[in-house]
Amino acid sequence: MKQQNKKERLELFSDLYSAAKAAYADTAECLERNMRQYLGTDEIDGSQERARVVRNISYEIIESEVTPTIPMPRVDVSSYSERRSDCAKAIERLCRAIRQRLPFESMNDSDERYTYIYGGSVWYIEWDSSISGVRAHCISPLDFIPQPGVSKVEDMEYCFLRFTTTRGELVRKYGVGVEQVRLAECEYEYPEAISMSDTVKLVIAFYKDADGCIGRFIFSGGLILSDIPDFYKRRERVCASCEKPYGSCSCHAGYKSRPLTYESVTLGNNKIRLPYYTPNTFPIIIRKNSFSVSGHLGSSDCEKIRPQQQAINKLETRIMQKLMRSGITPVMPEDATVSLSNAIFGQVIKLRAGESLEHYGKIDTTPDIEEDVKEADRLYDQAKRTLGISDALQGTDNTNFESGYARQLKISQATSRLESKRRLKNECYAEIYRTVFKHYLAFADECESLCYKDELGKVQLSEFNRADFIEPDGKGGYKYNDGYLFSVDESEGDGYQREALWERNLMNLESGTLGDKSSPATLLRYWQSQERAHYPYAGENVEYFISIIEKEKGVNAKDDGSNRSA
Question: Which domain-ending residue is among 305, 339, 364?
Fold first, then answer.
């Protein structure tokens, strides 16, 4: 983009944002409708009337799909060497440490529901210099405004993220003056709230310039909070007047930032000069639910079963109307002395002398709702089949005469019908881990200390050092190698996969594949395998058998010493 003053740039991005938001309005309306459906709205399409009863099958079915599983990283080399293999392991350990450090459990909770309700979720990875590490955000698709007409993030020239924050946060994080902060856009649009609310809307724009470099522009209403044309490039503070390193002159003219292109690194005993590593993609990853012919999101489960949800609401409303109109109407002689009321057991009928019960009766107007109930259940089963949800997956099938293994197999088969969704989630997490790695390669000046367990179950220390990724560029210089293959570790999947892995490990032990099953060394190998598969309390058993083996080694060493002295 050409050089512009602050006012022109604010107008440019504000206009782009307004146009993109207008183009996204129909999609946003559909997304909001999907969320209302999940929450149990009583809306009936094409009618002003409301359903009197809502049987929320959308919520029930979607909740049965939600899984707490968070895929773990796996990193491979594209071209093998021992050094690159060690680097791949260092990336894995880094990503696992980030996975444990950040609140991925709560983000996964949002991610799962966003994906099934809206058809996708949005992940944003940012480098936070205050902690010298990354932060991850799982964002509703309603707060991601794409470039109109472009479905893939990597093909977009610009896009927007929308956040809600406070005026105080703008002052603390962006150094905005107390008077300036009044220019920020209030979260609410009605005048009464503007004077009372402390929350504001914040918009982050990512864009590509003419050279393909990534820029970032942050604004709120008429307030510019940050404007960095080459967002990923390193910068240094220099004097605004003489451009010497800031603080090394006597100009007292303030400072400005200047991008840095090269850095000096000591490699071995030599000091080399190479370009700073600079990512060239937006730090945004889209997780899709399933295949969609258009748009940046996948298809929504709510949309797929909306016809069944609407029909069931109408049926349940009709059932309730029938039942509300029904009742027992008493029949009695005209001159009967009895008072009628709606209170249960609140009336007494006294027969006159010579009367019998035959003079009294009733008319039962209770309707037959059996066919309505059958049709509602049929529509519910239809909705489940549409999404590939079985009774076994929901835990509602009859399991009185099934073994635990048979039930586990049935659940695994049901889960396999949702395999494509699981693979798209794995693909999303692989990109998340790749983006994390690129941020550390670009900004981590300090080595990241890491710990892990080796094959013997012992805790080892290691580190992630971006200098380890420096390689010759084939042109007489050096570069950072980011050509690693990212995927997820399939062996660390959901609970059902883990249980199957536990059983396979036990079978290997019993069949003698691991060695003599009475040997402590074999049992150690078995429990190490179970520990990697997250078997409960496996770590304690690993420590127990390690201690036994070490004691045996000590006894053998004593015996050897006594024999030699003899």
Answer: 364
Provide the number of structural domains found in the chain.
2
Would you tell me how many other CB atoms lie within 10 Å of the CB of residue 75? 23
Task: Determine the Cα–Cα distance for residues 31 and 27; give it in Å rounded to an integer.
Answer: 6
Secondary structure percentages of the chain, helix, strand, coil, to 5: 45, 20, 35
**Residue ranges making up the domain that contains 530:** 494-565
Residue 544 falls inside a structural domain: yes
Instruction: Show the 3-state SS of 91-158.
Output: HHHHHHHHHHHCCHHHHHHHHHHHHHHHCEEEEEEEEECCCCEEEEEEECHHHEECCCCCCCHHHCCE
215: which residues sit within 8 A by CB, 6+ positions away?
1, 206, 207, 208, 209, 228, 229, 230, 231
Written as six digits, the tokens of 358 are: 């035959």
Question: Both tokens of residue 447?
Answer: 């080595």
**Tens digit of each residue's pLDDT (9 = 90 or more) over 109-168:** 999 999 999 999 999 999 998 899 999 999 999 999 999 999 999 999 999 999 999 988
What DSSP string runs through 444-510? --SPEEEEEE-TTS-EEEEEE-GGGGEEE-SSSSEEE---EEEEE-GGG--HHHHHHHHHHHHHHHH
State which H helix or E strand residue 264 sits in.
strand 262-267
In this predicted model, what pLDDT tens digit does every residue of 471-517 receive, in sequence order? 999 899 999 999 999 999 876 655 556 777 888 899 999 999 999 99
Asked whether 480 and 234 are in contact (CB, 8 A), the reply is: no
Last residue of a domain, one of 308, 339, 364: 364
- Torsion sign over Cα 108, 110, 114, 116: positive
Q: What tens digit of pLDDT does each residue of 344-355 get?
A: 445 555 556 666
